[in-house]
Amino acid sequence: MTTPASPDHAEPWYLLGAGNMGLLAAHYLQRAGFTVIALRRDATPTLERTLILPNGDPVSLQLRCQRAPASETEPLVGAGPIRRLVVACKAPFSAAALSGVPLAADATVLRLQNGLGSLEGLLPEGARMIEVVSASAVKRDGDAHRVVAENDTWMGDRADGGPPAWYGALAGHWPKLHWPDDFRHRQWRKLVGNAVINPLTGLHDVANGHIFQDPALATEAEQLAREADQVLTTLDPTWPGDSLPGVRALAEATAGNTSSMRADMQAGAVTEIDAINGWLLRQAEALEIDLPAHRRIIAAVKARHP
Ligand SMILES: NC(=O)c1ccc[n+]([C@@H]2O[C@H](COP(=O)([O-])OP(=O)(O)OC[C@H]3O[C@@H](n4cnc5c(N)ncnc54)[C@H](OP(=O)(O)O)[C@@H]3O)[C@@H](O)[C@H]2O)c1
Fold first, then answer.
1. In testing the pocket of ligand 1, which one of 16, 21, 94 has its CB within 8 Å of the most ligand atoms?
2. Residue 45 buriedness (CB in 10 A; 0-12 / 13-18 / 19+)
3. Could you tell me if 176 and 253 lie in one domain?
4. Predicted local confidence at residue 9, as pLDDT
């Protein structure tokens, strides 16, 4: 069931990154009555994909497409300045994906990516970037995209000015979508979980649950969590600073899962380590704090997959 169009629905959402998470967001946006246009690197006029919901129901997704510009100098044919954009490509491809996309000076951008800082310097100064932190899991399954878990999703922005007008319509169709007061802490909790679990499982090619069963990996996890807490507490003294139990609980709750970094490393793909551990390291450098465990693990991951 979709929501009938209102004046707020007149503005389409463009989607950069029509993969697992991008398609899930597109599905919720369409259900809420919004038009979604995928920016694709090929010239196909429509994109048809199947999303398999957690209850096994298949949903046929149809998105209008526009060819994304290949470079900054190539214009995007047929689109005026884009006022609403979802960025759901993997973090390292953000600059390439956004290159040449004509964003309006006051565009709203939903950043649906793990890690932090991947869009820094890439958006117009007046743009409103809303960060999306999702605990859902979507995986490629043959030609389809399978929603393995439909969990909480939190949205928030730096200005903390409260949700925009379209949020209410979307929240009615995006299960477990929240606009929490403590968004930044939720985002950081997800970041620390990723910064510990992803590189350790990727480097050692193990499932999430293995980390705390292996004493050597558990010690590394403890160091990574402690260093992350040191930076985050310096940035924000209200940060609780005791991340390890939460990371451990997450690893145990997802014991059999393959982290996205492990999957990327198995596939020989570029990882998101620069947006995850790299973000922590960049903050630490600015604060003149040394993070030896993060430095080592970033180097080790990059030595395998530069
Ligand atoms: N999947 C999950 O369960 C999950 C959960 C939480 C957070 N996340 C985060 O969500 C983000 C997306 O992950 P994902 O799993 O959805 O990745 P994905 O399935 O690989 O999708 C990324 C999409 O981006 C597209 N893309 C890459 N470069 C592009 C460009 N220059 N222009 C246009 N499109 C481009 C890719 O197109 P091609 O297919 O043509 O290469 C692909 O469709 C990541 O930051 C991830 O960490 C994912």
1. 21
2. exposed
3. no
4. 83
